[in-house]
Known about the structure:
This protein is mostly beta strands. The chain has four helices and 16 strands.
Amino acid sequence: MTRLFPNPIQVLVVLLAVGFPGALSAQETADPALAGPNTGAVSVDISLDVVTQYLDKGMVVQDEGLILQPDVSLTFALYESDQFVRTVDWFVGTWNSFHSDQSDYVATTSEAWFEADLYTGVAVGLPANFTTTITYNVATYPNGWADTVQELELALAYDDTELWGDSGLPALNPYVLTLFELRDENDNEDGYAEVGIEPAITILESESYPLTLSLPVAAGFGMYDYYGKGFDWGFTSVGAKVGVPLAFIPPEFGSWEASVGAHLVMASDAAQALAATGSQDDMELVGMFNVSMNY
């Protein structure tokens, strides 16, 4: 089996041996002003979503049974400066989707392991709180529902927190992304674009357990016949999510958070026609529970 990405452990050993160019020095990382037990240049993120439906870019993939979607990634802080390029982070990870019910779509096996994505990329911090991210993703389907797809995603995000100052208004955190299928073994290389915001406010002040309400809004558009006809609107999603830190977990085990929410997805006729389940309403309500850890 050909390895698509470097072994993260081997990469970590090499980087620690040669040092990270531009990364924080040992003296700087020992500064007590840097919060958290992990003051190194490598961080790990682990997340688990439990969803009532799996929708991919507005299209229903599965809406029955238990759906678990874990995500694990490593991030390497390679560079930091006060120049035009402020930071460079390299990340590598895997996202998966497990379904207890496979009755709504045709697969070659009955395995619960529906999708396994391997991804890697670079996030570059720019002036004025802009961040651009380039991600290469390989989507595979262990149960044989579809063939492998290779994708390249380009994203630009803006942290507008400073823009609002002391006005009391929440940051919108806008972003825009484009995705291109470099190779689709299902014989239809397409493109996709998305814009969105995710304002967040603290609805309950607490030293240990503050409640944060976020309101994600996104709209997706097909390019090169992604939804079947040229450049076309695919879906709009409006959601609400309440999150709380799990402060009872000691910080030496990482920073933990749990959230619960839902979002309403309004899909175009073209997106509905591409539903893997064979049927989809013009509006779908998706519930979600998430627990995540960063260290």
